[in-house]
Structure prediction request, 827 residues.
Amino acid sequence: MNKMTKNTTNGTKEVASEKPDYIKVDNFSFYYGSAKVLHSLNLDIPYKKVTAFIGPSGCGKSTLLRNLNRMNDLVDGIKHEGDIRVDGESIYDPFLEVISLRKRIGMVFQKSNPFPKTIYENVVYSLRIAGRNSKSELDTVVEKSLRGAALWDEVKDRLHESALGMSGGQMQRLCIARAIANKPEILLMDEPCSALDPIATAKVEELIHELKTEFTIVIVTHNMQQAARVSDRTAFFYLGKLIEYDKTEQLFMSPKVKQTEDYVSGRFG
Amino acid sequence: MNKESIKSDRPKGEVAVWFSSLGLSLSLILIIGLVSMIFYNGILVFWPDQVVMLEFQKGKGQDVKGSNFIAGEITKQQSKIIKDLNVKLDGLAAQEWQLHVGNKDAYGFSYKFFDMQHLVKESYPQDIILAERNEYGSAIFFAKYLQLKNGDKLNKDDPKFETTLKELTQECKARRKDILQIEKFEIGKINSKIEDIRLEVRALQRKGSNPEIEAKIHSFDAEIKFLQKGYEDLAAKSRVLREKQNENTLHAEIVTGEPMILPVGNIYSFYYPNRLSTVDKISIFTKHFAEFFTEDPREANTEGGIFPAIFGTFVMTLLMSLAVTPFGVVAAIYLREYAKQGFLVRAVRVAVNNLAGVPSIVFGIFGLGFFVYLVGGTLDEIFFSLSLPTPTFGTGGIIWAALTLALMTVPVVIVATEEALSAVSRGMREGSLACGASKWQTIQNIILPASAPGILTGLILAMARGAGEVAPLMLVGVVKLAPELPIDGVAPFVHLERKFMHLGFHIYDLGFQSPDSEAAIPMVFATTFLLIMLVVALNLGAIIIRNRLRKKYQASTF
Ligand SMILES: Nc1ncnc2c1ncn2[C@@H]1O[C@H](COP(=O)(O)OP(=O)(O)OP(=O)(O)O)[C@@H](O)[C@H]1O
Ligand SMILES: [Mg+2]
Prediction:
């Protein structure tokens, strides 16, 4: 417990967010068919901060994350109650085009999913989709994004080779590069480091630190130390319920709920 | 360890493995046997045989036109069926041989069985000649002399005889080409121009009559007259050339003793079959082989090449692929990606699968009724009303055949495409959507490229089925002989309304509709072999493309 708290603050003093309720999850419940997997969640995610979701497997972290950009729309037989608002706007507004929502929200998936295209084309995909095709712009974006994802040095000589020839960890970093290429306002990361070695993990964490100045980041992780290292706020979920949500320091050092304490100290989960 | 325990250690289900391997070997043997039989029989057609001369006892029923001599290539040697049980024969006497005797104009047949019981002598005369002619099949004869146009006679023993004859046939060959050029293309062009003008005149006449129109029609009349003059000039030119073909004649005698006079212009090529070295034989073999690929058929298709059929099959299959791919892929995309998966979609899927089981002739009838009569007829009424009642599109044509086959093979493409689409991982779709792509952009940029190999597999199956199909084609555009190719040098170059020849139909026609089916059998084998080769080639092309794509989209394992 003590060992962990050492890493909690990153040496930087926490600055209060300009918009503490940039993403507002309001009494949100979610069903897959008849199974209720999220139970009346209330959660405010602050602007330009890193928020971590932790909790045991199957507790609904991914489900909530995937609802933030309405990725769950693809699943048949879903239902929700309550609302989620981004910057005051409901994401379920019938007049809101889900595509424009997703353009503002980048996502890195639990399983890496590079496209069967070249590395270059993978990175610029979101720009091409938006009709931005100028070569010089794309070139700078590719370099910037790949550097951001700590991948540039490894792939700069094979940008035009297929992305499917990379290692699993490289693929995951490529997916990160792809997600940040189009400068989204929000970046959703579902266990981005689960396939990475410690060095790459450190690089990604460093990246998250840098990105924090530009993006609002939500990250799901099973790695307590990671949550403690990178996040400003942490939410602990258990069986589809939000058990505790607080400043990371607070949650790890002096959790208010017994379940949280047990979980973060590794006594269950 | 005792024997009992070894036995029980044998993996379960080994017998099933044996059975499955047995099944595979059986089907492999059947396929290899079939293909090699077709290959062997097909390839033999091109190999020059020796010509045997047989002498029989006179008056034993083997005489041809009163002569007990006959000569020809042996095509079959088999034992006779002897009805009289008391007669015991063995050796050669028990056999009957089938000879290709040629000289159909003299004998009235070109293949015949001979009873070897009455054989007196078998010989292989060195100076017997086999000539391929432009009519009545090949001729087998002894040359006597060459009557040249300047009145000279060149005796067969003259050392220059063979070379002169060869030169003359070459000359005639060039002239034949000229004649073809004039009669087929130049005269054809004039005819089509005259036809166009006639149509215009008819259109004007329909408008009613006023002085202006009368004047126009008059000027058209003058033009037609001018064209007709050109036509007559060309016809005269070709007549002169044709006469030249008959200037030199070869005087010969066939084995029965009958004289035979051959204009050199009728001879395509000739050789001394019993003098050939292996090298000669190989060169004749290659020549025959090349001719088979590149030339038009002659003599009710039993002679010459099958180029129009190869070309027709190829173009038709290509057109079919062009039609079936977008159609099938679009249908599959809708079914898999857009339609709400429910009872209706399931019903549609079952219906599509069952469509593959509908007899192909039914598609032919549908194609005739829908494409030819309805669509084609309507097109004719709208765009080609002037040439009615002669149909343009309202009759069988390569486009309708291709569309009919496309309709027939579309279930294959739909099923294969659906499989391929559903095999694209959900992660990939979500990745694209998360980048802000619309559903269509995702399909276009991610899903279609990734499923292209699977779609091509469907196309390969469709092509294999389509290229070998005959029954429906007979109703919608295949003909026995179509000298005009669907793609040629006359504007607009691609003539989709034309009737065409097809290898599959060619096989049927040669084998079962030919007036001389014996003569056609070797061609049937050769054509069948070629059809198989064509399908293999088309498939190989598609497979190579597919493998390229596979390599491109192949996912590495972590
Ligand atoms: N597509 C789906 N259809 C039905 N149920 C689902 C679906 N996806 C997830 N679930 C269920 O929803 C619950 C929450 O799943 P979720 O993926 O959000 O868990 P998680 O917290 O991300 O777990 P992990 O840490 O293992 O990734 C689980 O019980 C799961 O079985
Ligand atoms: Mg998850």
